[in-house]
Structures
1.
Amino acid sequence: MNVWVIIALIGLITFLLRFSFIWLFGRVEVPDGLKRALRFVPAAVLSALIAPAFFFPPGTLAPAWGNGRLWAGILAAAVAWKTR
Amino acid sequence: MSAFRTLFWQGVRDVSPLILGILPFALISGAVSIAAGLSGLETMGMALIIFAGASQLATVQLLEAGAAWPVVVLTAAVINLRMLMYSASIASHFQNLSLRWKGLIGYLLTDQAYALPIVRFQKGELKAKHAYYLGVALTLWLVWQIGSLGGILLGAQIPPDWSLDFSIPLMFLALLVPALTDRPATAAAVAAGCVSILAAGLPFNLGLVLGALVGILIGVWVEGKTP
């Protein structure tokens, strides 16, 4: 299969994933249950995005308590909490 | 200056600390793609058409390994599944815009282009949310394209073991704290973080998707229990 076709396919799928709900909202009535769940997306996604980055040193999956990133994260979280 | 332009530049300013974190990633993705045997044109095509770093890297690796095309496409799609969550979460802020705007907003949606605006939107009402979003997202897009081009031109001069800049997780952490508005949201974050650590070994970024989904469910559950 031609590389360009693969790139185009992935691009199309990725665009549809991104565009999906942005397009749907305002066109269809969004169920209340979904609206309630969506409120938690930022907290859940941000936490799931960063937790492994702080917990594991780069390139490994072994937790390390002597890992400087973990302590940097705890300190940064404390400062962000205090100053919010 | 109009509200649109003011907010656009506010977005540009807010995202600028992230440039140092994105640029090395873009350089690496360009260089790795060339090293894997793709042409400069194909590499720029990926940056422009796919515009999603993790899935681009996976695509390059699978193409180099000679994987069958459905495997390549499916892997990239699974890695980008999280975009569905971002789209659903941010959609209500853009629901009155034209189709053209919605298309542009969708095309530019990335981890960072979601995270900064959504936290800003939840803090308080903005006159032109799409202007702020465009400032953030277009800056990220530009940095990604320039970085990819730089990676293509510099190629092998870029050390492959450059670690991705730690400023991105730190920035996300600073965004997470204001998102912890109440007990259910905090519970959602704690659950999502724990699951994503436990599931960090899963391929295709699925630990992130699983962690976020469990976190959302826990948030809804805790909210239901709170009178």
2.
Amino acid sequence: MIPLSYYLVFAAALFCIGLYGVLARKNAIAILMGIEMMLNAVNVNLVAFWRYRTPDLIVGQAFAVMVFAVAAAEVAVGLALIISVYRSRHSISADEIDMLKW
Amino acid sequence: MTTVTLIWLLPLPPLLAFFLIVLFTNRNKGLSHSIAVGAALLSWAGSMVVFLRSLQVERFGEQPFMSNINWLPTANSWLKIGILIDPLSAATLFFVSWTILMIFLYSVGYHNYGQPKGDHDRPGLPPHGATVIDEHGHKHRVPSIEPMYSRFFAFIGLFAFGMYLLVVSDNFLTLFIGWEIMGLCSYLLIGFWYAKESARAAMIKAFITTRVGDVFMLLGIVYLYSASGTLNFRDTLYNADVLTHLAETPAGFLGLSTAGFISLLLFIGTVGKSAQWPLHVWLPDAMEGPTPVSAMIHAATMVSAGVYMLVRIFPLLTADWHGHGLTPAMMVVAFIGAFTALFAASIAVTQNDIKRVLAYSTISQLGYMVAALGIGAFVAAAFHLVTHAFFKGLLFLGSGSVIHGMEHGLLHTESDAPPGEQIDPQNMMNMGGLRKKMPITFITFVVGGLTLSGFPIFTAGFWSKDEILADAFLHGHWAVFLTLAVAALLTAFYTMRQITLTFLRDPRTDSAQHAQETPWTMTFPLVILALLAITAGWVGIPEGFPVLSLFVRNFFHEFVAGTLLERPEPVFFHIVPLLTSVIASLGGLYLGWVIYRDMPAGAEDPIAKPLGLVYGLIKNKYYFDEIYDYLFVRPAYWICETFTYLWLDRGFIDGVLHTIARAAFSVGSVFRNWIDKPIVNGFGDFVGESVKRFGRTLRFVQTGRVQQYMVMTLVIVFGTLFYYLFFLVRP
């Protein structure tokens, strides 16, 4: 059986890729995608810990499903915001959406 | 009503009239003068009753009418005020009430009651006359009613109150109050036509000059109070113990006794009030007032009040006198009186204004009385005071009547050809021939004039003046006797000059040509006063006078002499003073007639040439006004404007204040510049500025880019984690 650490390393890598995407990409949709990736990295962790540590309980799986739901809702809201921003500024570049400053 | 109650009430009607007129009836002219004249009539009737009752009292001087009440509590006693009618005040009351009543009545006519309102009269100026159109359509200029008619009667009412109060009072305090009320009223009445510059100047001059005397008089009263502890006449003046005490205590001043010193201080009050040299300057200027006022001030009341007071304090003045040789105080009084008599008479000779002649004549006659008191002739002075009040009141009212007639003529010249003649209706040079136009005024004026000049036998002035001269002669006061004799000559001369210029020969101007007799309200008082001026002398015919003394006793002497503790001996008849006064009187009258009978219109005064430079000197009143201007008025102005205002106030007081202010300002500046601004403000600003600068420095962090925020968050989280793991949680 594949040891737990493999999953954890994978999840960490996935999280880091997502984090990089969030921090480095200009396209707001790409940033959203990065966030999704980070959330899924967490989900991998949750499921892996459940399988290796407490397989009798269903909590891990249930929690992962919860995260999906939240992520789906978050993407819906995020895309709506992006469309709204695009309508007013004709751009979805994160660099140009910088009105909240001094 | 008991006599004493009646005396208490005597001064009140005029005072009531004053308040009634001022408060209620001043819009109604007829009602106002009715109240005032009615009040004068009441006081007059009361005075007559008191006078007649006082005649019936045996040895009245020892049992006068008196009564007093507690007034002002002092430490352990009361200051009392009260009334006292002794022979002296009874005689004074007699002439005061008569003249006041006559003057009140005369004022009605003088201020043109019943005439129309003036075309452009305004308050504060004498009426200028009105235009009326008669049934034939002719325009006439007629005299117009005084705009401030009621106000005049209010003032003379208050004036009369002051005089009555002064006469009936039994102490120096109420006497002084009455005295000052009259001072105020004379100020108000001299300046009655206040829109005239000259009237304003005259009112101030009169008030301030008399005030000089009044201050000394008040000092005298205070000294008397501190020396004797009472101000009551009976307790001081008619109390042998007090008099002896005062006479024997030296005042420590010029070798005078206390009595002499006090009486000199009080005498200065008389000098101011009765216009004696050197405080005589106000009286001629006071002629700016309406003529009834001049009569009031100069005949019946104010100036008489001065002499009345001096007669009153005669016992004090002569307290250390033993009948031969004069005390220093008496010498001063005699000198000032005699000098003033001659000095003022000489000025009167050159005056052309009909009222000014009378003003100087008044000063001169008052000088007679003062001189008489100075040589100890108590009764003679009182006698002359009474007769003078009548004939001088008569003359003043007569001159007012003349002026009134002249003004009528002046207005008449305007009726034909405006603006008419431009002459001074008071200047005697513009008159002449008025005897035909104004017969009643003429006759009464001549009576008054002859009385003033002491025309023998018939007139009161002869008897009273003769008594003074006789007293001076018989007691050997030669200097006084000669001075007064010369003054008598001058008096007769200027009186005849006045009569000749005014009434005799032909009119010298159109106005005099058209002068008219004045209404009955003016002539009636003249007639009454003329009768009194003649008859008042018959009560004082000296003992031993050929023929006449067989019929009449020297009643006045018997009556008034009783005022004093030691009844003075009556002056016995002597031929030398009699001849002197007859010669002076008749000689003066004759000279006045001869010199002025042929004076043509517009000519120079005939005595101007022979007198030369002296005439100019006298004409300008010996330059006393100018001298006083240089000596007192200008220095006073200098002290006010330069010394007090510029130096003391602006320089010194303001300077000190400014210095203090400047010093306080500097201290404040120091605190502000060195403490408040740098430290307190600096700290506050530093905090604020630092925060600002800090914020400005750090604000670049807030880029508005979400990703950068996240990077920062990440860095901080990692940093914190690193720190936590490697430094705080030691493995």
3.
Amino acid sequence: MSILQWTWLVVGATFALYIYIAWRSRVADVKGFYVAGSAIPPVYNGMATAADWMSAASFISMAGLISFLGYTGSMYLMGWTGGYVLLALLLAPYLRKFGKFTVPDFVGDRYYSNSARTVALICAIFVSLTYVAGQMRGVGIVFSRYLDTGINTGVIVGMIIVFCYAGLGGMKGITWTQVAQYLVLIVAYLIPAIALAYYFTGWPIPQIGYGASMITGPHAGQYLLDALNMIHKEFGFQAYTSAFGPGQKSMLDMACITIVCMVGTAGLPHVIIRFYTVPSVKAARSSAGYALFFIALLYTTAPAIAVFARYNVLGTINNKAYTEAPQWFKNWERTGLVAWLDKNNDGIIQYRPGAGFKGAPKFKEGTGTVGQRLVENEPTKDQNELYIDRDIIVLANPEIAGLPNWVVALVAAGGLAAALSTAAGLLLVIGSAISHDLYFRMINPKASERTRMMLSRVMIGVAICVAGYFGINPPAFVAQVVAFAFGLASSSFFPIIIMGVFWKRATKEGCIAGMILGMGFTAYYIIHTTFMGAKPWCFGISAEGIGTVGMIINFVAMYVVSLVTPPPPQEVQDMVERIRYPRGAKAASDHGM
Amino acid sequence: MEQDKAKLVAYWHENLVIIFVHLLVWFLVSYGFGIILMKPLNSFHLAGFPLGFWFANQGSLVIFVIMIFVYCAFLNRLDKKYDVHEE
């Protein structure tokens, strides 16, 4: 069977499975809808959390990104896993004991203030919408490459599928579907990695393989990483395992970005909400452990894929005549994600440091002397002639490794599973934020369950349409907006939740001052440096990492302002006292403790 | 009642110490070994991996996972010791 037929078959089968699971676990009450009745066993909740967390970006883009960044890419590996340690130690058990549905719920009750609740609500919606748009885009890309449908059709099909199971089953439906999606995506990620590791080093475990010696090719007998470093030097790149050199990030900047990734993860509402779905405080702690185990399975494989791919790209393309380039190179050139500009007209692909030409490639009609697509971008002065989009590293992997067609199809289904599972979790946060936090808690506390369920479903529908719109018409600044989301999550939610649990004296005024100053500074810095073109003026920290400074400002402001304002009311202090001890945790609910 | 209260305070303090020790390890393996001490550690090797690079790429992640389960085990014992565990 061809790749196309295989892809239809595998994607169709997985979609049917997701819908079937959602149908089996449909719910009719708010408790089931928002927090799956707090009855998900921790291992499964861990898998669901992993699928929820690992987005199209983790699955499709991350290994590619690391492949180009080398050692510096570790900031994403440590950053997007280390946050779970913070969750398990500092947040999950206490929020679970607190036992409400959402993050704005906690903020509003702990800080006895509807203004704080509102700020939290707006942040939750903004962060979630930003994210969901990126997922829809991911769905579109996979559809257009593998199913020949065009990006827009892909986005619309994705929208319908997500609405079916998020709207029908709420958190319960989403959770069980995510368990299935996790299994699909991890198998799809591991198979090509294992095949590559085995091919290069004879080790079937990628995590070990990329530190082993090679058994094939011109560098047989050498350690793979040594060989890669050597090739890097030969072509003028910084060594793959080197750090903090010219053109690389500074130590401070890398540390700041790692902190933002960790703290941002721990402050993302769709991650936090997962710890309301388990039956007990004990389960909330271990659930974070299982989640990280399932995430780490993919995250420790990613740097291995990055190394194999880097070696492949440099070894099979660089200094080769275009006419002898491998087939996958030409397949992806057709999609426009690979481009070659023959600056010195020698018909040979020279891949060197630097961007070969300005911006993403634009093509003109016709082909060049050796059959390549013609790029019309303005060339730069450096000697590099090659553009490779980092998103193709994972998707092209099976083709590069010469794996059978069904593996290619499985990778496509894995990418879709990653995008859909994350989108569903985010949509639920948006739906519950509006129907629960805004409507039920602030506008109409007498609303019946029926009305609230109805409103949730409608809001999920609206959110899908907004996300779909951005998926079809992506704003030019998606990457910056994601940096924004992480910066905001780390400079707002994280400090106020931590202080709320660990410091009884934290007051409403402190919380509001902390959020406004922390977020205000972070937002200003990001806008100033990315949209208004200012140099990163705060110790050279880039926009991605500035949330660290915002977080510190939040903590300090909160501490100072809390001390000069009257202490919180006794019942709030008693509540903080109670959430510290596990006994007496009930299923999450919408009234009382 | 007074005694109960003192017991709960003791529980919380012990919990804070456990959290602090775990956060220390968390910081050490990622920011310490993986970033700040990365260069000096790279002169040691673990098979083909320079050691600092390995901590940043693999080691810290593996230790994170183990750490959470160790923390769970500590806390489960602590909950029982102070009789605050869930029925």
